[in-house]
# Entry
Amino acid sequence: MLPSDLSCLSSAPMNAEGRPMDAAALKVQKVYRSYKTRRQLANSAVVAEVL
# Structure
């Protein structure tokens, strides 16, 4: 089997561009990670003010 033939073995649903829907999940994870980082920085700033 050629590597190009292996795409039919993937169980991930495909979007309109033919890429796995995993790209959307990765985008959500990146957005959440950046949100979490901003919250941690904001919390650190509050703690630094209190000290």
